[in-house]
Amino acid sequence: MTWPHKDLLDVTQLSRADALEILRAAKSFQEINSRPVKKVPILKGKSVILFFAEPSTRTKTSFDVAGKRLSADTFSLAKSGSSLVKGESLKDTVLTLQAMKPDGIVMRHNMSGAAQFIAERLDCAVINAGDGWHAHPTQALLDAFTLTERWGGVEGKTVLILGDVAHSRVARSNVHLLRLLGANVRLCGPRTLMPHAVKSWNVPVFNDLDEAVRGVDAVMCLRLQLERQQAGLLPDVREYSRRYCMNMARLAKAARNCVVLHPGPINRGWEIASDLADAPESLILDQVSSGVDVRMALLHLYLTRKERKE
Amino acid sequence: MSQADLVVRRAALAQAPQDYVDLFVAKGRVLGVFPSGSQPAPEGAKVVEAEGLLLLPSLTDVHVHLREPGQEWKETIATGLAAAAKGGFGSVMCMANTDPVNDQAPITETMLDKAARSHPRGPRLYPVGALTVGLEGKILAPMEELKTAGCKAFSNDGRPVSDSELFRRALEYASDLGVPVIDHCEDPWLAPATGVNEGVVSARLGLRGNPDISEAIQAARDCLLAEYLNVPVHLAHISSRRSVEIIRAAKAKGAPVTAETCPHYLILTEEACEGYNTNAKVNPPLRTGEDRQALLAALEDGTIDALATDHAPHAAHEKETPFDEAPNGISGLETALSVTWELAARGELSVEALIRAWCQRPAEIFGLPLNRFQLGDPADFILFDPNARWKVTPQALLSKGKNTPLLGRELTGVVKALYVAGKHVS
């Protein structure tokens, strides 16, 4: 099939069939990652610029590993080393990058809509590696892949997204994708960390975690940023963790075999108890492995769509 | 009665578009409006044929940003007044957030001088003086000096005074001078000027929204101060139902409060920000359909007195950024009458309310020239083709600011001519 999308800006662009196709492709690349020699030539001669205008460990490394395993040339650019700090506009920065003829740009940016902004101005593929509070489609896809690996599929399962939903691109993309794939989603967190118009998302919202966790098949913890306390949205981390830290006692109230996810980096003892993070129920490191599988699939789909059309 | 030197023939008044009338003007003032052909045009008078056109008082815009001095790449007094003339405005009031701020007489005088040199026939320019020095909200600006130089109002527009004690004293001081104060209502603690409403769209786009209560809370404070001090306060660019309800209640109690809203709040809602459209980024932000309906009703019943554009031109490259980075503001002078006329044509607003809000009330509130087509009124008027269509393109706009969410839209209604004090401006 010809891949219909030039860019991956958010999961909202994807049909259910598109999402399932990505997960199928990720499965096929997973095998490569278990070989002794983890490299195939399918993107040989392709170049990808990893433009991370905001700090990132796992997403950036994951894309870098994924690209190199497919034999693409990857080039990294961070905001601190770019002309953005000299006051160059985002438009001029990305037009400059495009003039070097990459096949794709993977971008992380602190402003919502930045990925769409550059995609509208560039001919090459743009993959959103997280834009502000808006979207993190590759994270949502790797989360869905991780859960699919565990369960065989997410349809009919109930996933609780826990924590700072208001400021979370991970939450926004996951709410959409999980429901697209047939899962039930609920949210839990203090009202100060929920979007004011969260009702319009039509998902159950809880502020009591002990109630929210009942019967769920997975809990997806979100990272708590300390700046939320400084902004007056929370009393302190201690009180937050009393109310919203996912731990073994709360896991016992969930459905049997409930698993726990976290997009990382984790704050041990804040949003997830340290022992739970290391327990067999924790899929945190599976998520990281899945990240490489999914990003290989995405780079392949988005960087070869033109050839396949011809 | 002096002899007419200008006669506009076979125009129609908006209130009775089926009847032809002739307007007689002498020495820049109205002599009268008569059934067409009932009075002969005097020998030597300039005769303008206006068949098919509506004769309206020129519009008054009490809220524009002309950016000069200091930000001439966005707009100048020359380009801004050209845009005003094209939009049918005979008088405009320009805000003080220039660089340097209009907080002393030489700045006001420079503005007036630039206007006189670039547009000697009009539109008339009336600067708004800063309420506080540098718009910093700390020290009162020299209001008497500014008034003497030509300022017709005082405002901290864009940087509202959150200190209620200082704002109270500013109102009292300005009232001694008989000059009204305009307030941009925004609680700075509640509302970073993010340019998008807090609601469904901001929740989906992952943008920090500005809640309507930030406007309403400050509007409530201002209404209470106006009532308590019995001094006039004019509330700028009201955008929300909640503020309308507060103003209505204050007026019912007799508080000397007046208010304006802008065309964009009447024709657009928060959905215009979808796709991170920076041309729809404005402060206060575009709100919901419910707010839009409340504003229309408030204009109709007079709770909201006036329309104003809040014309806020920006350079294209300044708006060509991610949403958070873009400056707030919509370039509005040239589309204002078309879009509000379309509202009237669709029956969402009466023509009477439209003329009251664009022509009569703004002039009354700020003591500016007002043309009711009565003997002796200033002959500030437009000839308007309510059926002509035009497309909003960067090329079509005379303003340097092409930043309007209406780009690409076809609008109905074109100002064919503007006269100020009986002189043809454009």
Report the average pLDDT across residues of chain A. Answer: 95
What Rg of chain A do the Cα atoms give? 19 Å
**N-to-C terminal Cα separation of chain A, in Å?**
12 Å
Residue share in β-strands of chain A: 5-15%
In total, the number of strands of chain A is: 9
How would you describe the shape of chain A? globular
Largest interface: A-B, 23 and 21 residues
- What oligomeric arrangement do these chains adopt? heterodimer
Low-confidence stretches of chain B: none
Structural class of chain B comes to alpha/beta
How many domains of chain B?
2
Give, in order, the helices and strands of chain A.
HEHEHEHEHEHEEHEHHHEHHH
Describe the biggest sheet of chain B? 8 strands, mixed
Give a written overview of the molecule.
- The complex is a heterodimer of chains A (about 300) and B (about 425).
- Chain A has about 300 residues and is α/β, with parallel strands linked by helices.
- Helices cover about 40% and strands about 15% of the residues of chain A.
- Chain A has 13 helices and nine strands.
- In chain A, the strands form two sheets. A five-stranded parallel beta sheet of chain A has the order 7-6-5-8-9. In chain A, strands 2-1-3-4 form a four-stranded parallel beta sheet.
- In chain A, helix 1 (about 15-30) packs across helix 12 and helix 5 (about 135-150) crosses helix 6 (about 170-180).
- The N and C termini of chain A lie close together (about 10 Å).
- The model of chain A has no long low-confidence stretch (mean pLDDT about 95).
- Chain B has about 425 residues and is an alpha/beta fold.
- Chain B has two domains: about 5-55 and about 375-425, Urease, subunit C, domain 1 (Roll); about 60-365, Alpha-Beta Barrel (TIM Barrel), CATH 3.20.20.140.
- Chain B has helices at about 75-85, 105-120, 145-150, 165-175, 200-205, 210-230, 240-250, 265, 290-300, 315-320, 335-345, 350-365, and strands at about 5-15, 15-25, 30-35, 45-50, 55, 60-65, 90-95, 125-130, 155, 180-185, 235, 255-260, 305, 380-390, 410-420, 425.
- Helix content of chain B is about 30%, strand content about 20%.
- The model of chain B has no long low-confidence stretch (mean pLDDT about 95).
- Chains A and B meet through helix 4 of A and helix 5 of B.
